[in-house]
UniProtKB/TrEMBL annotation:
<keyword id="KW-0732">Signal</keyword>
<protein>
    <submittedName>
        <fullName>DUF1311 domain-containing protein</fullName>
    </submittedName>
</protein>
<feature type="signal peptide">
    <location>
        <begin position="1"/>
        <end position="22"/>
    </location>
</feature>
<dbReference type="InterPro" id="IPR009739">
    <property type="entry name" value="LprI-like_N"/>
</dbReference>
<dbReference type="Pfam" id="PF07007">
    <property type="entry name" value="LprI"/>
</dbReference>
<feature type="domain" description="Lysozyme inhibitor LprI-like N-terminal">
    <location>
        <begin position="30"/>
        <end position="130"/>
    </location>
</feature>
Length: 139
């Protein structure tokens, strides 16, 4: 329970330090971000871009595996079902791993930067994994 609370609190810190929506964010030159708030905003935007890319690849890979499943005789859990279970486990791992990294600076103004940077890095790696997996199934 303590771990879940820590993850929830970490998310709350992210929400408190970054504006509620992109409409509320001030214009930030992320190539020259100088303040902690600007760096936090840029890290959040970077993570959002990485997450959007991963979700697009996820849809492609899952559709490919679902088509594969139709072409083979099932001997239990299908490839697309296994992928879904793996993705859910990976999301849990990513979020907890980044919460651990953020805990090193818990309560500090740079915690959102550390967490969002971790989320972006791991999400990009997962996007590559999903793309590689699609290649195994013929795409």
């Amino acid at each position: 329970m303590k771990t879940a609370l820590s993850v929830l609190l970490c998310g709350c810190v992210l929400l408190m330090d970054v504006p509620a929506s992109s409409e509320d964010e001030p214009a930030v030159d992320c190539a020259n971000a100088m303040t902690q708030m600007d760096m936090n905003i840029c890290a959040g935007q970077d993570y959002q871009a990485a997450d959007d890319e991963m979700n697009a690849q996820w849809r492609k890979t899952r559709a490919l595996l679902a088509e594969w499943d139709k072409s083979v005789e099932s001997r239990g859990e299908t490839a697309s079902e296994q992928l879904l279970a793996a993705q859910r486990a990976w999301l849990s791992y990513r979020d907890r791993q980044c919460a651990v990294e953020g805990a090193a600076v818990e309560g500090g103004s740079m915690q959102p930067l550390i967490v969002a940077s971790c989320l972006a890095k791991l999400t990009r790696l997962r996007t590559e994994d999903l793309s590689d997996l699609a290649g195994l199934y013929g795409n």
